[in-house]
Design a protein that fits this description.
The protein is of the alpha/beta class and 720 residues long. The chain has 19 helices and 31 strands. The structure holds zinc ion.
Length: 720
Amino acid sequence: MAEMQGGTSRRDTLKLGGAAGAFALLPLETLQHAFAMPSEMAGLPWANRAMRWMQVAFTEDNPIDYDPQFWFDLFKRTHADGVCLSAGGSFAFYPSKVPLHHRAKYLGDHDIYGDMSKGCRALGMNIIARVDPHALSPEAFAVHHDWCAYTEDGKPRRHWAAPDLYVTCQNGGFMFDFMPKVLKEITTLYAPDGFFGNRWAGSGMCWCNVCRTKFRAATGFDLPRSDEHDDAVTRAYDEWDKQMRWAQYTLWNDTVKAVKPDGFFCPNGHMSDPRAFIPLVAIDRQGRSGLTPPWMNGKYAKQARSVSGDRPVAGLFNVGYEEPYRWKDSVQASPEIESWVHSGMAQGFRPWMCKFDAKVIDPRWVPVVEKIYEWHWRHDKYFRDTENLARVALVNSSYAYADDLRPKVADAQNGYYQALVESRIPFEMVDDRLLDPAQLARYRVLVLPNIAVLSDAQCAQLRAYVKAGGRIVATGETSLHDETGKRRANFGLADLFGCDFAGKIDEPVHNSYLTPRPPHPLVRGLENAPRIIATVEQLHVTPHDKAPQPLTLIPSYPDLPMERVYTFVTKSDISMVFCREVGKGRVVYFPMDLARTFWEVLSGDHLLLLRNAVEWAADEPQPLNVTGPGLVDVAYWRQKESLAVHLVNMTNPMTMKGPYREILPAGPYVVTMTLPPGVKPASVTLLESSQPAKYRRDGDRLIVDVPRIAVHEIVAVDLV
Ligand SMILES: [Zn+2]
């Protein structure tokens, strides 16, 4: 999916297969410290200024066959104001004097980084130099065996895709001695605004002598083997790896800053440590493949913004094909590119095209990229200095989960995400490390889709949130595990849920049903449904009181032979939801994996329950309501002098499988937006349709007709 992926990752394999428990990636207070930084630190002025990025990642043959003028013309036409250019690392694209800095094979006397950089400066663009240190040349290997990564059985690691090269060790001299020299030289010669490091953190676990010695000195352990199952060792490795990456990041960042005080190093991936206060956040999710839903790029944007505060967030995209096959020299269909980029832009990404190879083999991507960028530039002011007005937030769990829990948590998150998109409820994401009152105050409802791991401190924060009038909707194993991954005897949030865990989880449950019990709003829309499907995982719980609940269980009965597919238990008193008022707040808890089963089965009845739960908990109208056909992802933003409602058309016969071949417009829609207090609309424009909108005022609401959406319509309201 990303530029950083590919190759083997021993560390990931270990992490996925080894550690039985979960552990916090970061101490909570560290992240809050990052957020407590003064607002003037929240992004350097230039980083905030650059709205449209282009990345040209050179290939070794580019010096002989690329046309720089093509790029300068494209940057002008697209109003790109930021560029990321390959400079050095494994390959130098300038005449480097650092010993063993491998010059690109056909560089000769050229300086293509320098030439492109100069041309971009003349266009007034901001420049980030790209370095990629993951491959090692044979010449460097001959001199420095100690720069190479080694396999578990002591062999130097050849590059998996280019076997004349080797793979670098992330903990040895290449990263800690050679690369700082490269960064210093590039900064001294060209003064780029910053650096972007691709594959900077190694290519999985390395068993070289440097790694063995350093790990033993730091932890007393031998490096874990690939079949290692000792928790203590794998945990120690993960912790040590984090410390090494932090040391590497600070060395590189400080090296750059020593020459250019306002410069910085931005690592691609593998750096969730918020002490790395990077002024521009670049998220590398270049496209989708297989069954990835079309809203996924918007989700990446929300996730990134949930931990990046006010900093600008750019979303990388690629015109070529994505993982797992990476055909980068051809192009995807324009509707697919367009839909992916708009999915991200609607939720806060600035576009960042990532082009491998500076020569253009297949030019069919050019018109669609021009179209996207030109449109973005024309409506630039609606994408700047924005504040999101959503009142609902989906909690994102930052823990590294063990094998048994990971898919349950991930699928539940996608399930509730899908339900909220289908329901057109505007929502944000909240990081579980940021559950303090200052972060949560703007939200009316927090959704916890099987957030299995929560520490006591996090549970206390959620309790305080509800007591103060907040509302939560939780499913399944939420709060059933502590921060080490250990299962608790009872839910951490049992007092809010109104039930205790009875010690048993049934899974997989076949042919079990739910009985909706109207007229509670939770089962609105199911008044005529005496029996709807239940879920695959069900938790045994003991209710705290006998209050009747609107959803009860019909226990599992045979689904074969057909003659046995019946039950006399048509109603039970086993509650499968707890809807409660707690303090000034409300809580809905489903003792089953409703969101995960929804992700798997996509039952419309489950969609109703998931939507009704949020609406009953909120007990207030959503700030945005959209009626009309199909699947539409929505967002509601406010800028200094305007409001913008984003509507992304995700209705497509190919939505459920694979890429878009054509854009099928949908409509008509009626958009009802609640105006923030005190604002006065002056004009309402539809930006995709390029026409004034028909609208009327109804108290504090603005009701706008949107005749059709092709890809991404914006209802832009300019304020008096
Ligand atoms: Zn090593």
